[in-house]
Design brief:
With 198 residues, the chain is mainly α. It has two domains: 1-55, no CATH class; 79-193, no CATH class. 44% of the residues lie in helices and 5% in strands. The chain contains six helices and two strands. The chain has helices spanning 31-36, 41-48, 79-89, 98-120, 124-151, 167-177; strands at 59-63, 68-72. β1 (59-63) and β2 form a beta hairpin. α4 runs antiparallel to α5 (124-151). The longest helix has 28 residues, at 124-151. The two termini are 56 Å apart. 11% of the residues are buried. The model is unreliable at 30-41 (pLDDT under 50).
């Protein structure tokens, strides 16, 4: 009898009639054993006390003209997911890649335009609201820019170089366009390997 499973290559006991890993029936040398071995695979696994592997999550296949990529199925987002993402976004801990940095920068531009419109209205309440919105957007922008500096392997204090003339242009180009460090660094895991954030 074979010492290894022909299907998965697992090591077999000399008396095994089924593979303990994949459940494939093992061919025997004598035809009498071949015909009498009508045993359920689940019974064999229970007798040999082989732990069954957990079921993999369903996968979606993305097709293209050249290849097929198997991806985990997307779970629908709930309000709790969005609250978690917002909570994770309102911090200076962690890293932020270029794409997510530009999404947040675009959001801040839109909010600053709205604040400017409110501040042009000749009344106290809209001007007050516009000023509060401007301050909140500025704090948020500092927070995600610090996380972008972390992606480059720099501390948030690195951004203070932005107050030096001409050096501020270099800092802005680096923060906006330079790719972050590959893999985890001292500030956290690679944001490209962290799904579920916007």
């Amino acid at each position: 009898m074979a010492n290894f499973c022909p299907q998965c290559g697992a090591r077999l006991a000399p008396t095994s009639k089924f593979c303990p890993q994949c459940g494939v029936r093992i061919a025997s040398d004598s035809p009498q054993e071949e015909t009498s071995a009508q045993i359920d695979v689940s019974t064999i696994q229970a007798e040999e006390k082989v732990p069954t592997a957990p079921a993999d999550p369903p996968k979606e296949e993305t097709t293209s003209p050249h290849f097929t990529i198997s991806q985990p199925a997307q779970t629908p987002k709930t309000a709790e997911n969005y609250l978690t993402m917002l909570k994770n976004d309102l911090t200076i801990e962690g890293r932020l890649n270029r794409k997510r940095y530009w999404v947040r920068t675009g959001l801040c531009i839109v909010l600053n335009i709205i604040a400017a419109i409110f501040m042009e209205i000749p009344a106290e309440l809209p001007i007050f609201f516009g000023a509060i919105l401007t301050i909140a957007v500025s704090i948020y922008q500092i927070m995600f820019t610090v996380r972008r500096a972390h992606d480059l392997g720099r501390s948030g204090w690195y951004l203070l170089w932005g107050i030096v003339p001409l050096v501020n242009i270099y800092i802005a180009i680096r923060i906006s366009f330079i790719e972050g460090e590959k893999g985890p660094n001292r500030f956290g895991p690679d944001p490209l390997e962290t799904p579920g954030t916007w």
